[in-house]
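I'll show a typical protein example:
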Amino acid sequence: MEAPKGFLATLWNFICFLPYFFGLLLLGTIKGIVFCPLICLIIAIVNSSIILGLLPFHGYWTCYSIVRTKLLGPFLKLFICVFLPVVLILWVVVGIVGSSIGGVLYGFLSPIFATFDAVGKGKTNVFVHCFYDGTLSTISGSFTVVRDFYDVCFHSYVSLMEDLRQKGPPNGKYYEIRFLYLPPALIAAVLGFIVDFPVISLIALCKSPYMLFKGWRRLFHDLIGREGPFLETICVPFAGLAILLWPLATVGAVLGSMVSSIFLGAYAGVIVYQESSFWFGLCYIIASLSIYDEYSNDVLDMPEGSCFARPKYRQNLKEPISNAGSLSESDSLKPHRPARMDSLTNTRIDLKPLELLEGLFKECRRHGEKMVSERLITSKDIEEAKLTKGSRVIGIGLPAYCLLQTLLRSVNNNRSGILLSDNTEITATNRPKDTFFDWFLNPFLILKEQIKSENLSEEEEDYLGKLVLLCGDPERLKISKIGSPPKSDRKRAELDAIARRLQGITKSVSRYPTFRRLFENLVNILSEDLAKKSNGGTQPIRRSKSALAMIFSNKSFNRNTSNMSDQELQSTIARDIEIA
């Protein structure tokens, strides 16, 4: 739908939009009030049961992992084990309270968003969907939430503890408590809290009116001109809801600043302990005010700089380390300031993390079926994947192999970014802006440059791929026909290092709850494929959706952006591989 031109057209469009918006908002609110108590009870009761049921296991296994790890010294192990009950009690309180609050928010907001989504493009029988959407889907979504919560509390927790036990001390020196610097570190932490909490809270309160009115001005300007989030018709209800809820967002930003000031100030104790200097801790307390002031100016698009001083608080600090600094550093990779999505002529791609992850994992099923046909993935791997411990070949090797193929595709096409299978290139300008996702994208970009510098041949690429898939298992590497390794010991070691980095990144991704929940679908698919092959089946398996793509699928996040039909998808699967 094209944006209306002229003032009268935009004004009339705005007036006609208001009744529909308030009607949908009222209907969604009624559904939210009806379903909120039920959803809150489901999430709060089940999550609380999970927390209390796994509490003895968490206490025992944490103590066991701390005692067995070589990363910590004996006094530090004793200190952690003594104060572990306090941490567990806090975990129970925070977990139960957080589950209750999360249940209230999910139960109330999910029906509202589903009601607005019911009038989107491509929807038929809109009137019925306005009443039906957000009812059963919210209830089923609450069970998905508790399932994901269990995966985090059990599977992800076990994986983290396993890494803790296996990780060795850096440079051969384990971490130990220096009792001499504990008292000054505690004093510095208390002073940091006393200074930072009131000052940062005052700064946040002073800047909150600016955030409120500037946000409203930007949203209303986009609404009248049908720009920004109001450009697409389906986004108009959500953007209109953002106008109404913007004061709550401002209040949340102020409260978030007040809470973060506690940790920002208490970090002065860490500075004192790391730098072995109480003076550096005091300098950090002053510098932290400047760090927050500059970061908030950057977020609110205010003039750069700060009225607070930023003294040096580390011995070997070349540049000020702050959130604002890291943000500006990442923005320096961009040739210009990010352009707004305010017109149809803007060609800048703004990828979202979930869409990017979905693209990276879309080929996992296709490669998995291919590996089953080549017997690189065996029935033993599938049976191990069904167990609690899981299979490294399917759980880590297969996703890492797909990520490697994406990196190789980027290198072979001489692209500066990462080239996905749909020819979408992820560069420094269109990458997701979430700082959290930079933890994964930046290592991929570094790995791509390392692979490019190796100038691999086709045989070496195939060897590296199978090395990643089989997780370096020497017996499997000998049995599998993957070709001979590079003759150079140096090159072989470099390929081994690249394979380990890919597997490490993939293992971090595998700890996310959606990965564990929907990864079981992939195991079932590969099991059926293997059974078809063993029974001599000749028909390709017909499924409507990629299994590992579902890990970050639109359905998992209540989005529907795929336009591929079942017939097209089935023909694609049949073309990719046919189980003989």
Notes: Residues 353-532 form one domain. The radius of gyration is 27 Å. Strands lie at 418-419, 425-426.
